[in-house]
Design goal:
- This protein is mainly β and about 675 residues long.
- Among the domains are: about 60 residues; about 140 residues, no CATH class.
- About 10% of the residues lie in helices and about 50% in strands.
Length: about 675
């Protein structure tokens, strides 16, 4: 504000009272008293005015001082520019000399004495531009770019494909500042930003702008401020596959071929549809092969790498199991349909289990009405042979989970009454059963889950009516032995459960009651095949749990997420001993679509759970249309913007920060996309 004139104070009444003048003394005293009653407010207003004017004077002085400093800096820079000479190739310059570049007419200061043949504009190692981070110049790009400190800083990109990015300059050659670069994505796919070390900093989504500043230039990577970029981005996208029009009924599976190539199979999720395959090679500028038809009208299908550059596909119709090999050459696929292996099925499968390698054979498990069964497969050259059906149990229950210990196949299943594990040895396509074991307790069972711990033992969990059971199965030769316990829970439905292996003998167990009640935390300890739990020392009452998922482990600290009443929580638990200890808990008043359970029943991690550094992301889920994506850090939970991709099915990638998804485009077709996250 401007300095204000002082307010007026009314003058004292005159003439003054005189003691000897009795006729006027009393009236004049009254006038003086009245004046004293009104003058304090006027004096206070004057004091306030003086204080405000003093503050304004001080502020003006500080502004003048800053202006003087700026003027001095500008004068120094002007003097440097004024004294700058034209740079001459081969001339010797002292440390700190200023020369202007014939290329852009800007001034540069010499870093260390010496000479050279490279224009200062292109020689950031030996010359520093005499400007602050003002953001000069502009450029339009369609692919990746490696920026230097003097690159035009207003950048518009229209990416011609996925995976392109801007590599930021060596930070030691840049001035620290608020805005060194601005990147506007005028295209239709994400564009990445990386530091000089190649670390991904984020992605600029279509129609968005990222402003990039530098807060620390003490090393080449620097500490960059990237505002407007997101931590989840598309880094690979296939052309539209017009043959795939089954939309949300489509399933995608990924099989690693080598360090750069992935085989992606689309179809086979329980509804009759064609089965397609395609190769992606991340080392190529044009990474996608041509999609090929593997088989038509398949209910279910699985794929596995059976030899170098060979894929085995096991699929079924409602009446037949078919196996075929696919030969891979570069990004090309040849389906060896002339060497098909098949067998007639006694019933239409209702679920299709794992395809797992056991020695030189492979095993496919499945369930149909009244039967849980499996078949062995062998391959000679390109020709598979499908063996006869082996009945695991004459009952249809959960799909069997399969594990291998040495050369022995171990099958987790429901034996019609109890959860059970049965071992088998395998010769070619012939199974020989060993002695199994069970978790004997009151049925029925709504859910059976399992994993193989670091001791090689199987940990099996099952839900009964009002009970939850945990057992450890130890294999000796071809004989299984079980050690188990049960505990009561609230309600009769299936609880939310997840488990995180902590060491070879320990795993953190999280259980949320099916119909509210409590969320419970314990540690499963396996002592050479003998199970023990701490008795759920961490139990927290809650109104209900709509979702629960393990998020991350660091050392012996496990983090779990759960949602209740549109609030998302995170709990960190220390599992160093035999009993869990609560470290911290956080919440955000948003319903985040949590990922599915961790890799149970011999499966992979859920594709909606991605990790980078110490951050876990929950994204890409079809359920996310009713909830936010989430970022879970060790000490906070954040709801983040949903990724806009319409992913209907996904599969995890090679690294923890990568997943693949299929984006359905109605009757037009589908696009396969690779998505990544960064810390």
């Amino acid at each position: 504000m401007a300095i204000q004139p002082p307010p007026a104070i009314s003058p004292a009444p005159l003439p003054a009272a005189v003691r000897g003048e009795k006729a006027t003394f009393s009236d004049r005293i009254d006038q003086l008293v009245t004046w004293w009653q009104t003058s304090p407010a006027q004096i206070a207003a004057l004091a306030s005015n003086m204080w405000a004017n003093a503050q304004e004077t001080y502020n003006n002085a500080m502004t003048a001082a800053r202006a003087a400093a700026d003027a001095s800096s500008a004068a120094t820079a002007a003097a440097a520019s004024a004294s700058a000479v034209k740079w001459v190739s081969g001339a010797t310059y002292a440390d700190g000399d200023v020369a202007w570049s014939p290329m852009d007419r800007l001034s540069y200061r010499r870093i260390g004495a010496g000479s050279g043949a490279t224009d200062p504009k292109l020689d950031a190692v030996h010359w520093a531009i005499q400007l602050y981070a003002l953001g000069l110049g502009g450029q339009v790009l369609s692919t990746s770019v490696s920026l230097v400190s003097t690159s035009p800083s207003a950048i518009t990109v229209t990416p011609t494909g996925a995976g392109f990015y801007a590599l930021l300059p060596d930070a030691t050659t840049c001035q620290k500042g608020l805005s060194l670069f601005a990147v506007y994505n005028n295209g239709e796919i994400d564009y990445g930003v990386k530091d000089f070390a190649g670390t991904q900093l984020g992605w600029v989504r279509p129609g968005a702008t990222a402003l990039i500043g530098l807060s620390d230039n003490s090393n080449a990577a620097g500490s960059w401020i990237v505002s407007g970029a997101q931590k989840i981005g598309v880094t690979g996208a296939s052309p539209v596959i017009t043959a795939i029009t089954s939309g949300s009924s489509t399933r995608i599976q990924r099989v690693a071929i080598d360090s750069t190539r992935s085989f992606l199979m689309i179809g086979g999720n329980g509804s009759s549809s064609n089965l397609y395959g395609v190769i992606h090679d991340s080392s190529l500028a044009s990474p996608w092969g041509t999609p090929v038809l593997i088989a038509g009208t398949r209910l279910f299908a699985n794929a596995i790498l059976s030899a170098a550059n060979q894929i085995l596909v096991s699929s079924c119709s409602s009446s037949e199991i078919d196996c075929v090999t696919i030969t891979i050459s570069g990004t090309g696929l040849t389906v060896n349909s002339g060497s098909l292996g098949f067998q007639t099925l006694a019933g239409a499968p209702t679920s299709w289990g794992q395809l797992i390698a056991v020695g030189s054979s492979w095993v496919q498990g499945y369930v149909y009405s009244g039967q849980t069964a499996m078949r062995a497969i062998t391959i000679s050259g390109n020709a598979p042979t499908v063996g006869a059906q082996t009945s695991i149990v004459a009952s249809s229950g959960p799909v069997p989970a399969m594990y291998v210990s040495g050369s022995t196949l171990r099958v987790v299943h429901f034996d019609g009454t109890y959860p059970a594990v049965k071992p088998y040895t395998l010769s070619g396509t012939t199974f020989t059963a060993g002695n199994g074991a069970i978790i004997a307790n009151t049925p029925p069972y709504q859910d059976i889950r399992s994993f193989q711990n670091g001791n090689g033992n199987l940990v099996v969990m099952a839900t009964g009516s009002g009970l939850y059971m945990v057992g450890v199965f130890k294999l000796t030769g071809t004989i299984e032995a079980s050690s188990y316990t049960t505990f009561s829970m609230s309600g009769s439905g299936t609880p939310k459960v997840d488990v995180v292996p902590v060491s070879g003998s320990k795993a953190a167990l999280f259980v949320a009651d099916a119909t509210g009640g409590a969320i419970r935390v314990d540690i499963i300890t396996d002592s050479a095949g003998t199970l023990s739990l701490a008795g759920f020392p961490l139990t927290y009452a809650m109104g209900g749990c709509s979702a629960l998922a393990a998020l991350a482990i660091s050392g012996t600290t496990v983090r779990i997420g759960f949602t209740s009443s549109s609030i998302t929580y995170q709990m960190s638990v220390d599992c160093v001993g035999s009993s869990p200890t609560l470290i911290s808990a956080q919440a955000v008043r948003t319903s985040i679509a949590l990922p599915g359970p961790s890799a149970l029943n011999g499966g992979q991690r859920d594709y909606t759970l991605l990790r980078a550094g110490n951050t876990t992301y929950s994204s890409l889920s079809a359920a996310a249309v009713t909830g936010s994506d989430g970022a879970f850090l060790p000490s906070s939970v954040r709801a983040i913007a949903q990724h806009p991709q319409a992913i209907v099915s996904g599969t995890p990638g090679a690294a923890a920060n990568e997943s693949w998804g299929i984006e359905a485009i109605g009757v037009v077709g589908a696009v396969i996309k690779r998505l990544e996250v960064c810390a």
